[in-house]
Amino acid sequence: MSNLSKANVMHRNNNKENTFLFLTDVNSILVSGEDTNGEFCVVHCAVKKDDGPPLHLHEKEDESFYVLDGEIEMTLGTQTIVVKSGEYVFAPRGIPHTFKVKSDTAKFLVTAYPAGFDSFVKELGVPYVEGMEAHVEPPTPEAMQKLLSVSKKYHITYPGL
């Protein structure tokens, strides 16, 4: 982080300017790539029981997950682990991974380095308004095409899709 200066010191919370309904999650971008000269981003995720992304891999970024509340089951490559509140997981680039929320809800922080996941959330998400519900039906063919198209731009692929 040698490119960062004291001018980048920040204090931020989840608010209407940085929060998006992203697929089935409510994601708040706490630190963006714009804040860190592209070095990393931090996204606060609020997810409901049984939600989680399809198996995917990031070709250009590493991710870490820190569970603030709840319990998620993560698959990283061939390993599946249960991650509880207060626990951390590192998911290196190039390894297929996914998660599924096992508790009623879960809140966790995703840090991606370099940044890019924050832009992915902004591009695929819609500004969140309190009370919005995610669509729980299977995605339409158009929604799947958009997911795959935007994912390709960010070097995210889906083994098996």
Automatic annotation (TrEMBL):
InterPro entries: Cupin_2, QDO-like, RmlC-like_jellyroll, RmlC_Cupin_sf. Residues 46-109 form the Cupin type-2 domain. Transmembrane segments: none annotated. Pfam families: Cupin_2. This is Cupin type-2 domain-containing protein. It comes from Paenibacillus oryzisoli.
